[in-house]
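Box 3.1 A note on notation
Throughout this textbook, protein chains are presented in two layers. The first layer is the amino acid sequence; the second is a token string describing backbone geometry. Keep the layers aligned when reading.
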Amino acid sequence: MANIHDIARLSGFSTATVSRVINQQHYVAPSTRAAIQAVIDQLDYVPSTMAQNLSAGKTRTIGVILPHTDHPYFEQLLTGILNAAMAGNYHAVILPSRYDQSLEQDYLEDLRRHAYDGLIFTSHGLGLRTIAKYQIIWSYCSLRKSGKNQTRRRLRRPNTCLSRGIPVDG
């Protein structure tokens, strides 16, 4: 599979110029753009989504933690989340939890390792205090109301999403 370095070598232009053509930036002369595009077409080059995400520092992926999907409430909620993700050019990954605290903790650690740009907890086995520890790094909201006013006041948000770089309405 061809990469940006192959295109640069074959076209005779720098990787920076090839990158500008691939990313459709306007700072490239039309003749240069045409020459690079010819090599791109010849090599049948397709940009690597993983490389683009790495460069941008985003995965464009949201994890959706569901206890199960065989309930009409979660089906409707998931449909809404999927529609919103698609509208925002994001992918949603369904993360089943069955209220398993260990699994949910693993999903939080995946978030911390940047496997997702955000997590949506539709219902969770972990307590809000455990989830809130990750608020230091990511924005936080919740789809579940806290049963304890003290916890709610401390978090200052009635509703659980963790996000890095995704706008979250508070």
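The beta strands are 61-66, 91-96, 118-121, 139-141, 161-163. DSSP finds eight helices and five strands in the chain.
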